[in-house]
Amino acid sequence: MDPTYDFHDRVAVVTGAGSGMGLATAQAFAESGAAVVLSDRDEQTLRTATDGLTSAGHQALGVACDVSDEEQVAALVERAVASFGRLDFAFNNAGIQAPPTDAADEPAELFDRVNAVNLRGVWACMKHELRPMRAQGSGAIVNCSSLGGLVGLPGRAAYHASKHGVIGLTRSAALEYAPRGVRINAICPGTIETPMVEDMIAKGELDVPEAVANQPIGRLGRPDEIAAAVLWLCSPASSFVLGVALPVDGGYTAR
């Protein structure tokens, strides 16, 4: 049985919400009663996702945002608070993958772009989300790292560096804000059935049988399983949990 939460009169921001894990989490927040501000840099998928929630009777607002641009991030959070009066939850999920590259040949432009979105983007989101939460004296933030934040893999140095960075960012900020009533955690998804993973498969960058074999549960993960972990980390059920990097990876990192 899936747990249910009552998030009525609460407000959530989800980045990378146009598809995949972000969309599943935005839907889960909405179904639990929260007003949801969805953000994505792809305006078409964002519009479709937002319309899907509003047509189902949920409170939802779509705001286009490239998280690598701090001014856009600040405007996103300001819009959320102006529209709904507060900010209670955030899932900083927006991220990009990079093609496998020999560490000796990795272009600086690739490293900079991956870290601009995956690490600096999370930093900017958390920075601006913390301001209204600090004023309220309450809130919960979940940052999206990866199993790549816990282990290394050949050819993935830039991506894994960004995801390791998210965990360090999360732990330090969690210690700083715990006394102020704000809990900050990270999740570390394994290989999940998302458009990004589908793109990696199509490009030959991911071997599905190998990925399945590496997850002891014997299958790829689902976006709704990530959403369930995020909502738990935002709920009173995890009130004593902060600063963790929670693997949601089918057992990959338990080996």
Automatic annotation (TrEMBL):
Record carries keyword Oxidoreductase: yes
Class of the enzyme per the UniProt entry, highest EC level: oxidoreductase
GO-annotated molecular function: glucose 1-dehydrogenase [NAD(P)+] activity
Keyword terms of this UniProt record: Oxidoreductase
EC code(s) of this entry: 1.1.1.47
Family assignment from sequence similarity: Belongs to the short-chain dehydrogenases/reductases (SDR) family.
Protein known as: Glucose 1-dehydrogenase
